[in-house]
Write a structure and sequence with these properties.
264 residues; globular; two-stranded antiparallel ribbon; 5-stranded mixed sheet; 9 helices; 43% helix; alpha/beta
């Protein structure tokens, strides 16, 4: 009888540990994988501040007043996180529902979802495994665990948005604005542009809005990105006005935004 009690306690502890795994620690990679990435692909220098004009003549700062939807220049947006599961998909959903032209991607080597323990993630291949297949896989493994930690609900949302996670580095689509949700993802995007052969020489603004990788912060972060998208689409001249827009956005939202101009 004592033996059975100890086994039950151990089982309860194991399940509690599994349920404590972050719902959206999707981009976690083991140390060896990170070291291999760093050796194979040196990280680019991240901009510490945006370019400052040498013209010191005081200029009247005009607030960005959103234009009616019918008067907007329609920009193409991409939102990027590591596994194209939580942060990028939450923002994708919010922007799409608000009428923006938006796509979403991940930059990780694989799509990773938390498993029964931190060292046993569920790993899927970009571009092949659909959200519906991931849902069925988790449902067959431990429906109680994956329902309680929110993964099944998240995948249900994703299934309603698009078919499968997509990898940014293999996409040939072009955008006006790319917004990453994490500094490491921003670095991977910039590195990808530096290694791509020049094609059209079309400019693209790569931005980073730092968002913690959990469901609650993803909702908050999606609101930030939606606000930023509205301000950018309201610009009279995006190329000339973007620095003013970003400064106003940072002041209004009390966040910092990385910005780099890249070219296709």
């Amino acid at each position: 009888m004592k033996r059975a009690t100890e086994d039950d306690s151990a089982g309860d502890a194991k399940r509690a540990a599994a349920e404590d795994v972050s719902v959206d620690d999707f981009d976690y990679e083991d140390d060896q994988e990170r070291e291999e990435e760093a050796i194979a692909s040196p990280q680019p220098t991240r901009p510490t501040q945006r370019t400052v004009s040498l013209d010191v003549t005081p200029k009247e700062k005009k607030p960005v007043v959103p234009k009616p939807v019918s008067d907007r220049r329609r920009l193409g947006f991409a939102v990027v996180c590591s596994s194209n599961q939580n942060r990028s998909m939450e923002a994708h959903a919010r922007l799409s529902k608000s009428g923006y032209q938006v796509r979403s991607f991940g930059t990780g080597q694989n799509v990773k979802l938390p498993g029964p323990s931190i060292d046993k993630p569920n790993v899927y291949e970009f571009g092949k495994t659909t959200y519906a297949e991931m849902y069925s896989d988790l449902l067959s493994k431990d429906p109680a665990l994956y329902r309680s930690n929110g993964l099944l609900g998240m995948l249900e949302r994703n299934i309603g948005i698009k078919e499968r996670p997509e990898k940014f580095q293999t996409s040939s689509e072009t955008f006006d604005v790319i917004v990453s949700c994490e500094g490491r993802v921003f670095d991977q995007i910039v590195l990808d542009f530096s290694s791509r052969p020049a094609k059209s020489n079309t400019a693209v603004h790569v931005l980073n809005v730092e968002i913690k990788d959990n469901p609650e912060e993803a909702i908050v972060g999606a609101g930030l990105i939606l606000d930023l998208a509205e301000m950018l689409e309201s610009c009279e001249d995006l190329e000339n006005d973007i620095e003013d827009v970003l400064r106003e956005f940072e002041g209004r939202r009390r966040v910092s935004v990385l910005h780099m101009l890249a070219f296709y």
